[in-house]
Specification:
This protein is an alpha+beta fold and 442 residues long. It contains eleven helices and 23 strands. Bound molecules: guanosine-5'-diphosphate (GDP).
Length: 442
C-alpha cells in the first residue's frame, strides 16, 4: 500500500497499562448479558410478546407506547400497538456501528437481554439464521388456541426449532401463548407441552434445557407478572422473565484466547484515522495490546478503545467495542476478518467438515459459505453420511443426495483460506437461498 499515508508513517509506540483484565473485570459486580432469538409460526404472537417484555420492563417509555396505541386504534388495529414497540431494525442498522442484527434490549436486575432477531421481517428465515448464529438461547412462541397450534406444528415451528438446534443453540424456552383464548385450560397446556417436548427432544434438545410457560403476551399474564386470572391459578411455575433470568450465556468465554469478528472498518474518524468494530466472542484485550488480523496474518496495535461507545482501557468477551488502531495498513482489514492474539491465533482453513440441517437437496455442488458477516464462494465436495437428528449417529454412509429436512455430515471446500474453527455456526447458500445450516466440526 505505497499510496497509503498510514503505511509510510513511522511505527507508533503505545503504552500499555499492563492490566490484569480478568481481575479488573471481576472487581465490579455486573449484570450478565444474554441474547436470544424468537421463533415460531406467523401470528403465534411473537411481536406482541416481545413488545410486552419491552413495555413492562420500561425499555420503551410510556409516551411512545401511548402514541403507538393511538395510531393503532386510528387504523382499527388496536391490538398491534405492542408489536410496534419492536424496533424493526432499519434505522439502527443503517447506522451500522457496533451491533450486528437487532437492537431490542431490555434489562432485569440480573441480566441485560438482547433480542437478536426482531420477528416480523418479511424475509424471516435468513434473518432468523443470522439471529440464531448469535443467540445464547431461543424462545419458541406457540399459539395455544384450538386449531392454530396444530397448524403451527406442521408449519414453521418445526423448521425453526430444528434450525436453531442445528446452529448449536442448546436451551429453548417455550412460551405457550394466547392462554386467554382457551380459558387457561390446563389440559390444553399439558397436551401442547407433551407434543412439543417429544418433538424438541427428537430434534436434539436435552429435556433439562426445555421449559414451558403458559402465558398471554397480549394481556401480560405470566410474562413479567403472575396471572391474576382465577382459571390460571393451577400454574405455580416461573413467569417468562423469571425463566429467562435463569439462562446462562454460552458465548462469553472470558478465559479463552481472543476472538472478535470485525463488523465494520472505519477510516478518518475524529479519534483515530483507522478503527474497527465488533463484539468480542472470546477472551479479552487492552490498550497497548498487539493483535493479529486473520486471514492476512498482519499485526496491529490498539491505540485506544471504546466499550458501548464510552472510552475504556480494556474489554472482554460479550462486549460491543470499537478499536482504534495503529501500525497497520487498512488494506489488511475487512469486515468478516477475525481479530486474535499473536500468541494463540485462529487457523486459516480451505476445507472443513460440518454437521448441517438441509433445507434443500444437498449433493456435491457450488455454495456460498457464510459465517456471520463473512462469506466466501466454495463447494460441497463430499457427503459423508446422513445422521439421526437426536443422537447424531450415522444413518446412511456416503449417500448420493441429502433430502431437505435431513441432518448430514458434509465436507466443504472454499476458494480461499478463511479463519474458521469449531464450533463456528455456518450457513450455506446457493442461488439466493439458504440450502443448509449447522456447526463446523473440524
Ligand atoms: P407474530 O406474527 O408471531 O409476530 O404475531 P403478532 O404478535 O403480530 O400477533 C398476531 C395476532 O395475535 C395479533 O392480532 C395479536 O394481537 C394476537 N395476539 C398476540 N398475543 C396474544 C394473546 O396473548 N392473546 C390473544 N387473545 N391474542 C394475542
Amino acid at each position: 500500500g505505497g499510496m497509503n499515508n498510514l503505511s509510510v508513517e513511522e511505527k507508533v509506540s503505545i503504552k500499555s497499562k499492563n492490566l490484569d483484565v480478568l481481575s479488573e473485570y471481576k472487581k465490579v459486580e455486573r449484570k450478565k448479558a444474554a441474547s436470544f432469538v424468537v421463533i415460531g409460526h406467523v401470528d403465534a404472537g411473537k411481536s406482541t410478546l416481545m413488545g410486552r417484555l419491552l413495555a413492562d420492563l420500561q425499555a420503551v417509555d410510556a409516551r411512545t407506547l401511548e402514541k403507538y396505541r393511538r395510531e393503532a386504534e386510528k387504523i382499527g388495529k388496536g391490538s398491534f400497538a405492542l408489536a410496534w414497540v419492536l424496533d424493526q431494525g432499519s434505522e439502527e442498522r443503517a447506522r451500522g456501528v457496533t451491533i450486528d442484527i437487532a437492537t431490542n434490549k431490555f434489562e432485569t436486575d440480573k441480566t441485560a437481554f438482547t433480542i437478536v432477531d426482531a420477528p416480523g421481517h418479511r424475509d424471516f428465515v435468513p434473518n432468523m439464521i443470522a439471529g440464531a448464529s448469535q443467540a445464547d438461547f431461543a424462545v419458541l412462541v406457540i399459539d395455544a388456541s384450538t386449531g392454530n397450534f396444530e397448524s403451527g406444528l406442521k408449519g414453521q415451528t418445526k423448521e425453526h426449532a430444528l434450525l436453531v438446534r442445528s446452529m448449536g443453540v442448546q436451551k429453548i424456552v417455550v412460551a405457550v401463548n394466547k392462554m386467554d383464548t382457551v380459558e387457561w385450560d390446563r389440559e390444553r397446556f399439558e397436551e401442547i407441552e407433551q407434543q412439543i417436548s417429544s418433538f424438541l427432544t427428537a430434534a436434539g434438545f436435552q429435556p433439562k434445557n426445555i421449559s414451558f410457560i403458559p402465558l398471554s403476551g397480549f394481556h401480560g399474564d405470566n410474562v413479567t407478572r403472575r396471572s391474576e386470572a382465577p382459571q390460571a391459578a393451577w400454574y405455580q411455575g416461573r413467569t417468562l422473565i423469571e425463566e429467562l433470568d435463569t439462562s446462562e450465556p454460552f458465548s462469553h468465554a472470558l478465559e479463552k484466547p481472543l476472538r472478535m469478528t470485525i463488523a465494520d472498518v472505519f477510516r478518518g474518524g475524529v479519534q483515530s484515522p483507522l478503527s474497527i468494530s465488533g463484539r468480542i466472542d472470546a477472551g479479552s484485550l487492552q490498550v497497548g495490546d498487539q493483535i493479529l488480523i486473520m486471514p492476512s496474518g498482519e499485526k496491529a496495535s490498539i491505540r485506544s478503545l471504546e466499550v458501548d461507545s464510552a472510552p475504556a482501557d480494556w474489554a472482554v468477551a460479550g462486549q460491543n467495542i470499537v478499536l482504534n488502531l495503529a501500525n497497520i495498513d487498512p488494506i489488511h482489514l475487512r469486515s468478516g476478518d477475525v481479530v486474535c492474539s499473536p500468541a494463540s491465533p485462529i487457523q486459516n482453513l480451505t476445507s472443513f467438515t460440518t454437521k448441517v440441517l438441509a433445507f434443500e437437496h444437498l449433493m456435491p455442488m457450488l455454495v456460498d459459505i457464510h459465517r456471520g458477516r463473512l462469506h466466501v464462494p466454495g463447494r460441497i465436495s463430499r457427503v459423508v453420511a446422513t445422521l439421526d437428528k437426536g443422537s447424531g449417529a450415522p444413518v446412511k454412509k456416503r449417500p448420493k443426495i441429502v433430502a431437505p429436512g435431513a441432518v448430514a455430515r458434509i465436507v466443504v471446500e472454499m476458494d480461499q483460506a478463511v479463519p474458521l474453527e469449531a464450533p463456528a455456526r455456518i450457513v450455506l447458500r446457493a442461488g439466493g437461498n439458504t440450502v443448509a445450516a449447522g456447526l463446523l466440526e473440524s
